[in-house]
Amino acid sequence: MKMLEVKGLKKSFGDLQVLDGVSFSVEKGETVAVIGPSGSGKSTMLRCLIDLEKADAGDIMVENEFLMQDGVYVQDKKAQQICAKMGMVFQSFNLFPHMSVLDNLVCAPVSVKKEPREQAIQRAKKLLQEVGLSDKADVYPSALSGGQKQRVAIARALMMNPDMLLFDEPTSSLDPQLTSEVLSVMKKLAEEKMTMVVVTHEMGFAKEAASKILFMCDKEIIAEGTKEDIFDHPKDRRIKEFIDSILS
Question: What would the pLDDT profile of 222-248 be if each residue is shown by its tens digit?
Fold first, then answer.
């Protein structure tokens, strides 16, 4: 089943074109890694998928429902319903600093989905256990390392029971040890067949966990395929140059 289908996505900020005809699809249970040089439009594309940025043209279809068709968005209420099927994990964590870890997790299910608070607390504790943070439920984000904050952010996204998770450079601000903490949680999700689209510079993760890799360059996706297609037998010199620069 196709979880996500994107066709001809275009986006400009004033005179600056950032996306120029991006097209790809994501199947249920796939982990799709999006790699490529900085400034190629990867993060903007991700933000368009979940309606944090408005694209200018193209189609976005989530689980066979159009979020945008021929550049026209569905009405706000419908858009919210469609976007609720996706969770987003940002590179800057975006935790509420004035709330404990537990309250960060419980807040949205209780206020948005009207889930009973006690039920939400039990689910939150279970998720904190799964990301290795059972002992941090009552602390505030300021007392956490960057890796711990990102694991809380992943648990918070999972609290809304999304069908698909989007990750925007989730480890870019972390040092190597903290990066490995976060990637291990993401690899576990991949093994559990959580549908994920991951914008990343972590080539090890892309090789190990991704079932499909998209290479984005010059405002569009210029190649997609398996890790062998992209890393071992790149057909475009831009891919080879990028991989050589990353691995050198």
Answer: 999 999 999 988 888 999 899 888 876
Residues 6+ apart with CB under 8 A from 216: 22, 34, 35, 36, 40, 41, 42, 45, 222
Could you read off the pLDDT of 93-139 as tens digits, one per residue? 889 999 999 999 999 999 988 999 999 999 999 999 999 999 999 99
- Residue 149: count of CB within 10 angstroms of its CB: 24
